[in-house]
């Protein structure tokens, strides 16, 4: 675990792969990227709010990448970084939770229009949306766990 002295609050370099909250960066990349890919591969209908889901997945993917490289390079040693870490991950949780609910709603709506005999493009979109919903909720859970452990680390610093 990271030291609690003020000069070395957050891990840097390869130590981010050994600390509990920071080890979640890689799964957040994977599941966030999968949400992005799965939603981007579906067809967007006129009244479909998947734009919010795409914004959240791209926003969190880019910021998590930036966050990861800041931690990897060691530019996170100021006293404000633990607070920023907690704040970013809680914002990501709220964004991903809202996007997950929107995506689940759209999947339910599409599922109600897909009948048992449907084998066309709508069934493919429905299956992709189901996978995206699962990945989105897993990403939400990962960001939530990361936020909780970051808050615990922030409280100790």
UniProtKB/TrEMBL annotation:
<feature type="domain" description="MARVEL">
    <location>
        <begin position="16"/>
        <end position="155"/>
    </location>
</feature>
<feature type="transmembrane region" description="Helical">
    <location>
        <begin position="23"/>
        <end position="46"/>
    </location>
</feature>
<dbReference type="GO" id="GO:0016020">
    <property type="term" value="C:membrane"/>
</dbReference>
<keyword id="KW-1133">Transmembrane helix</keyword>
<keyword id="KW-0812">Transmembrane</keyword>
<dbReference type="GO" id="GO:0019911">
    <property type="term" value="F:structural constituent of myelin sheath"/>
</dbReference>
<dbReference type="InterPro" id="IPR008253">
    <property type="entry name" value="Marvel"/>
</dbReference>
<dbReference type="Pfam" id="PF01284">
    <property type="entry name" value="MARVEL"/>
</dbReference>
<comment type="similarity">
    <text>Belongs to the MAL family.</text>
</comment>
<keyword id="KW-0449">Lipoprotein</keyword>
<feature type="transmembrane region" description="Helical">
    <location>
        <begin position="86"/>
        <end position="110"/>
    </location>
</feature>
<dbReference type="InterPro" id="IPR050578">
    <property type="entry name" value="MARVEL-CKLF_proteins"/>
</dbReference>
<feature type="transmembrane region" description="Helical">
    <location>
        <begin position="130"/>
        <end position="152"/>
    </location>
</feature>
<dbReference type="GO" id="GO:0042552">
    <property type="term" value="P:myelination"/>
</dbReference>
<feature type="transmembrane region" description="Helical">
    <location>
        <begin position="52"/>
        <end position="74"/>
    </location>
</feature>
<protein>
    <recommendedName>
        <fullName>Myelin and lymphocyte protein</fullName>
    </recommendedName>
</protein>
<dbReference type="InterPro" id="IPR013295">
    <property type="entry name" value="MAL"/>
</dbReference>
<keyword id="KW-0472">Membrane</keyword>
């Amino acid at each position: 675990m990271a030291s609690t002295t003020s000069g070395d609050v957050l891990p840097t370099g390869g130590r981010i792969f050994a600390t509990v909250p920071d080890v979640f960066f890689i799964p957040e990349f994977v599941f966030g990227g999968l949400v992005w890919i799965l939603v981007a591969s579906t067809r967007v209908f006129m009244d479909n709010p998947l734009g919010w889901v795409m914004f959240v997945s791209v926003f969190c993917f880019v910021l998590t990448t930036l966050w990861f490289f800041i931690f990897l390079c060691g530019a996170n040693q100021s006293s404000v970084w633990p607070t920023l870490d907690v704040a970013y991950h809680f914002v990501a949780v709220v964004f991903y939770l809202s996007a997950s609910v929107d995506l689940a709603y759209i999947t339910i709506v599409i599922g109600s229009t897909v009948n048992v005999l449907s084998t066309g493009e709508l069934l493919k979109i429905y299956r992709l949306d189901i996978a995206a919903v699962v990945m989105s909720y897993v990403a939400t859970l990962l960001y939530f766990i990361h936020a909780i452990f970051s808050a615990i680390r922030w409280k100790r610093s």
